[in-house]
Design brief:
This protein is mainly β. It has one helix at 8-17; strands spanning 25-29, 32-36, 41-52, 57-66, 71-82, 85-94, 100-110, 115-124, 130-141, 144-154, 159-170, 175-185, 195-206, 209-219, 224-228, 232-234. The longest helix is centred in the first third of the chain and has 10 residues, at 8-17.
Length: 279
């Protein structure tokens, strides 16, 4: 079917499917469109533009839309824009639970939350808050940034686990650091019990002072660094500051909240651990 815009079949299927709560395409435009009535799949080739309800616009070189489960796949210079969210990637998968998964040079930014995710394989659901980044992972928020080969967590809960060698920059703590693994937990966006744990060959530099040890803990409330195990502190800045630092036993612990390192990551879909099927 060589047409520029494919409205008729969409309208028929929308009536047949009835009301749905997931995002559904309002129209698909491309140089060449093919509709498989049995599989209920539209295949688009060349200059693809998809307008979805809820205001999303997606452009790509090629793609396909599955009416059966309201999922989509696009590839070739993919650009996704919705309200204050933008995403670019080589390939993009849209699942029926509103999870977006970009493959290849993925960049996602939410201007409303001032949050950026980057990586080779990025999965994110803005409704549930679940996020997963594989390969050259990078997560940035107003509090700071994390860079690691693997980052997974829930940005609403809040729990983020980074592994494979983690580099961090904390605006909140005026600190930079490293650990083989990092776990950050906080009870919701407005929680006061934020706690970042660096484990394995950990080090942190805060206000010019360096901490080395098997485990370092940075707590949001008091903006302190605690050490666990045999550790070293090199103090180069002894000037007065509201941001104090010291070893574990001499500091007041952050309040305990329901979100801890043992709390399961919320919103994790079953397919989050599976490899992507290459189209």
């Amino acid at each position: 079917m060589k047409v520029k815009t494919f409205y008729a079949a969409l309208a028929v299927l929308a009536i047949a499917l009835g009301s749905v709560t997931t995002a559904m395409a309002d129209d698909i435009t491309a140089d060449v469109l093919t509709y498989d009535g049995k599989a209920k799949v539209v295949t688009a080739k060349g200059n693809v533009v998809i307008h979805a309800n809820e205001g999303a616009t997606i452009t790509a070189a090629d793609g396909e839309y599955h009416f059966e489960d309201r999922s989509a796949f696009l590839e070739g210079g993919v650009h996704y824009a919705k309200n204050q969210e933008t995403l670019t990637a080589d390939k993009l998968f849209l699942y029926n639970d509103k999870t977006a998964r970009g493959i290849g040079s993925v960049y996602y930014h939410d201007d409303a939350e001032n949050r950026t995710l980057k990586g080779d394989d990025v999965m994110y659901n803005s409704d549930t808050g679940f996020a997963k980044i594989e390969g050259n992972g990078y997560l940035e928020s107003p509090d700071g940034s994390l860079a690691a080969p693997h980052i997974e967590g829930n940005l609403k809960q809040i729990k983020v686990v980074a592994t494979g060698g983690v580099n961090l920059s904390s605006t909140l703590h005026n600190a930079t650091g490293y650990g083989d693994q990092a776990v950050y937990t906080r009870t919701g966006r407005n929680g006061t019990d934020g706690r970042l744990v660096l484990q394995g060959n950990a080090w942190a530099v805060q206000n010019g002072n360096r901490f080395d040890g098997p485990e370092l803990i940075l707590m949001d409330k008091d903006k302190v660094v605690e050490t666990k195990g045999r550790s070293t502190i090199v103090i180069t800045n002894t000037g007065g500051s509201d941001n104090t630092a010291g070893s574990g036993s001499g500091q007041e612990s952050a309040p305990t909240g329901p979100v801890t390192a043992n709390t399961p990551i919320a919103g994790r879909p079953e397919y989050a651990g599976s490899s992507i099927e290459t189209k």
